[in-house]
Amino acid sequence: MEPENLRENWEILGDVFYEISEVYEMEWADKSLKNYKLVMAPYGGLIALAWDSKQLTRGQPKRFIEIYSAAGVLLNEITTQYERISVINMGWSHLEELVVVTDIGSVYVYDFDGSPVLQISAQSDIQDSRVLEAKVFPTYGSSKTGVAVLTGSYRFHFISDIYEDNPQYKLMADVPGLDNPPSSWAVLPHDRTVEILVSNNNKLYLIDRGSCGPKFPQRMAQSTGGVVEMSVLYKTLDIALFSENGYLWVGSSDLQAMYSEFNTEVTNRPSQMCWCGTYDSMVDMSAAVVLVWEPLNIYKVVGVGLEAECSVHYTDSTVFVVHEVDGARVISSKTHELIRRVPQAMVDVFRVGSSQSGALLYDAQREFDNNSHKANDYMQEIVEREDIELAVNQCINAAACSTKPKLQKALLRAASYGKCFLTYDAPQHFVDMCKTLRVLNEIQSFRVGIPLTYQQLHSLTIKGLIKRLVKMRLYYLALPIVEYLKIPGGQQLVLSHWAMDKVKRSRESDEAIADAIFEKVGPSDSISYASVANEAKNYGRTELAIKLLDYEPRSAEQVPALMRMNRFTNAIQKAIESGDMDLVHTVIVTMESKVPPKDFINTLKDYPVASAWYAKWRAMTDTEKLRDHFYTQDNFEASALLSIQELEFNGMLDAKIKVLESINRHYIDAGKEFEARLTKEQIALVRRQMALSTKVADIIGLNVNQTVSLLIQRALFNDADSVRKEFKMPDKKFWLLKVEALAQTRNWAELEKFAKSKKSPIGYAPFVKACIDNNHKTEAIKYIERVPKEDQVEFYIDLEMPEKAAEIANSAKSKELLDNVLAAIGPQNKVLYEKINSFKNNL
Amino acid sequence: MADCPTEGIKLSFLKDLARGDLLDNLKLCDGSKAIFWDPMLKGPFNQIIDWGVLKQHGVKKMFELQEQIPVEVVDNKWQSVIMLIRPNLVMVDLVNTALRSLTVSQREKIDFHIIFVSRKSTMCMQQLEKHNIIGEFKNILELELDLIPFDHDLLTLEYPMGFREMSAELDDSCLYQVSRSLMSLQSYFGFFPNIIGVGPSAAKVNTMIQRMRKEGAAHEKPLTPRIENLVLIDRTVDLITPLSTQLTYEGLIDELFGIRNNTATFPGRAFLSDEEQAQVQDEVKPKQTLLTSNDTIYNVARDLNFNAIGPFLKKKAKQISAAYDEKHDAKSLMELKKFVSKLPHMQAEKKALEVQTAIAGLVKKRIDNKEFHQKLGIEQILREGIEVDRINEDIEDMIYRGEPLLKILRLLCIQCIAADGLKPKIMEFYKREIIHSYGYHHLITFDRLEKCGLLFMHEKTPKKSYPILRSTLNLTVEKINEKEPTDIAYVYSGYAPLTVRLVNWMTQRSGLKYLADMVKHLPGPAFNDTQKLSSAQDRLEHTDNHTLVYFLGGCTYAEVSALRFLAQHHPNNATFTIATTKLINGNSLLETLVEPAPTKSNVPDFLN
Q1: Is the pLDDT of residue B4 over 50?
Q2: I need a labelling partner for A367 at 20 to 30 A (CA). Which of A92, A454, B26, B522 fits?
Q3: Between B119, B436, B599, which is nearest A649 by CB?
Q4: ipTM metric
């Protein structure tokens, strides 16, 4: 592209260049804007058109607002069911929703597709006195949206945040002497308060909720007269004031600093006044103010700055001017144009006679394409300046600033040519810019209609752009962009909005929707199926919600969501599948308190894991509930075991028998005959102990063996015998018990008698052992003859009678036994030691 | 046996991580601190952090949580009191008691903190609410601690009730913790390409980790897998092994003295020299000994059969004295210098040898008796399936004599499993006799044993699983060389743990096919899964064939030794890291199942 062509649209205001370039030819083709109000969202957003309220009368179509893309493509229409609705003003909220203020102070908020989002009604005093004028403004650094109105009783009211719960108009202080509409007013939103600057009777007043004070703009010439129009730049809180004598005063909104004052030489009140770009005295004085005089068919662009100048432009129909961070858009019935300061990078490369390295590089590349040796000369110059990197960056940045793909390409080619001369490789900036420009060109296309400049994108941020695309349901565009630019979390954002939207709006079957979502999103945890399901539930599609929850891989999300939908059976199943017993616990506890007992019982019947956990938990916290649980689950065996666990060692015996009888019944019900029989025996034992307790008080609570032992210890041999018979105690066991018990109570006479009563089924070793254990040597020796020789040897060793042990071992002719004795005595006992050795030798 | 080489799989960093986490949590608690420990956590944390380090971080005093709060607690003043517990209701109730007695006695305000290991549970939070103390806590924190390295190749969750929960109570809490621990291992070592498992719990864990992977798929880091196989073994698949008496040195120490957190306590007198023993008349304080691979003597001795310990210790003693004798041969100054530089090491080794000799002596004293040998004899014939279908007279006599119930139950359960279930008459005989001798409440014990598959009735069409496995997997081995073993069966002097035999086949290429035939004889399902690795996680050339063997429900020291032996004799040069929910032996396993006797009062002591 030839720089000359490019510069045709440039004009100089003071020492900076401005250009006006056409963005779109409007699709709405010659639609007369004369009787409309127009508001456009920032960053090349949507356009809303409303019939001017004065034109709206009875019998008008119910359709009262149209929404267009920035290219004038009709997207949606907003209709109303009210017979008469009179729009005073509109604006776009920070969420890019349309805010409409009516003559009775009602605020309607619509989504871009015309669906109502919310509605605020004004207090009756506002309704009664009617709203004359209204303004929609951003507050809290564009994180909230407010509305201010002027009523027929000449009072100001405002809402600081229309999205808060129960927003209400608040009254501002009165302006003295205001008995007519003020000549102009503006809202100055601060972090916590809202002020309004009002111009009345050649005077300026600043009001807030409690006070009103006069204001005098710094250095404003006395001759300028009363202010008839104001425009606030909300972002920086700068203000432009137009006075009746045609002067434009620009300064800070506190009126303490003046940036410039300019005589427009037009004294008519402008029909519109709008900031163009953003003023920042610290960095670069780039802003201008655009003033439109519709009756005169002109608009002027007035530069802000010490040496302000202005340019004049002619229009042939109604135009609307809209502010942007780096310029202003002019919307007419035919075109959408952008006025902006020519970015410095472009000026560097394309200014007439620019000697910037970027300009040289651009030229060099073009000469190179023409096979001209001049390319070499230019490059030589840049190399000598050691400016290659600067030149490359200037070309890249200029490409970024350009909105024309052809020019972008030419500049990037130049940059790429210059890169060949770099001695190192730093491709990132270049690659990033190419990618960003591809995205910008794509969304700028007529089809999409979002005409962002690079500076605007930078201010909006990619995330902000994605949010907007998602808001406008341009998922097909948003998804490739986040993938292409590799935006962290971007895919998640787009897909989850898409899924939520699908759930909300699709009329397909639950199955089809769930399948469609799963097909796109897959078994991933990148979006939360639980939150999509929650949305579905909010729209009354519970079945769909449950289907969606099936895809949620995180049980900790899935299970609580199912519970919120009262799907406890699904919840318990999923909780069990997860293996997370904490989730199982949560579901059970919630169920117990929320569902009818019958359902709770049945669910536990169906899910043994849940039932087991419930039992375990109740065993620790509430045994009554546990007992009920086993009862309702017909778990007779568990009931029996619970009762066994609760049996006290020495409680009240009657009560104990009662419990045992119930255990017996439980076991019979459970079909556990053997355990029932054992329980019967236990009852018999307790009865027996009751009877015996008069003689032996401490017999209570003992088991069968202990009972027999104790009776023998107390020498109640007949009782012991009878217990033994009743409980069919094996002979061997009885003998062992008796020997032990007699030895313990040192009842040696009875022990001997017992030994002689009949042939011992346990042999006589236990006799010897019991005597030894109870330290009675002589008693032990009484029985020792009757045990096998090898045992005798051992016992004699235990009895510390090694000689005898050696003798027996010798008589048994056992080398092994002799060795055992040797090992036991050790070499200290020399006599015996040698004796045993001689025994061994004689074997 | 020498070190089990585990190239590249270093585990000690897990300790560093847990220590870091604990200290980070302590930093949230201001000023001087007192810690109240869950008694089950003190041991594990001892493996991780020194008292000295805690002191440096402002910890003035530590207590175990118990019903009675010691008086000194009430008298002291700390700015912060930290309760460090596992999330269970008993502990929460103890926290409540402690907190109340502290708030009553202390006039100055204390900050209370609670740290749940590894995570807080809804149940506990509700209980805190019920006690109305949830507001008292300045911080309610979680400390992720799952697998604790007990040695260079050994990790344990130290989850005491795991076996009971997973086998008898349908409670997946322990398995969930296992799964989380595996996920965290995978985050360090990459996804396990192969997962092989046997038993229902193994299948559950496999499902859970696949599920957890899905839950976190978006945050998956591509890592080259460094552990080739994960082998999950449900303890219920092989219960004979833990029921049998371990006969390795370490196993026996555990059976007789109990190893807890790598530490065992012995009678102190045994560690004195003969002269000292003669001099000291008073009671000698019990000696606590740390038993880890850092001790060069123990590191080898632990895995030996006890019958090989005597010769080994003798050989070592000779080596050490020979090393000392080098002093006399050292002629030149250089040689002497070399000798002196070796001295500290020699002295340490000599000391270690003395300690191990004393311990070996104690073990020998305990096993050199009729009862012990009789018990081993019974175990052996039962495992070999001899006369398992009738009442074993020796067991019967033991019941009559009222020998320790755990000893009887161990043998009884071995018989039951070896017999593929007991016939009703035999079962009823044993049960009745045990109830008569040990109390009616053991009906509860039997119920639990049955739920765990430790005790069961013979079915009409028996699966014959143990007899078949015994012959096909060669579980009982005759003629074992205990001193120069050639087979893992040395760890039980003639019985090879089924688990380790399975691992052997699972880690051989052709083994899985062979195993497939056997699967139907194993209790519970068996599976062999492969995990998809993302392309970035391409497998590295597998020079090392490393396997993580995870025992669900506990493993014995003998099994650990057998796996170490296996690694050294493995045809595919497999190496192993062993993980378990708890280190167990037959007693500690059954202790979790045996119902305690009803509380007694006024019962003469001699009846107990």
Answers
A1: no
A2: A454
A3: B599
A4: 0.92
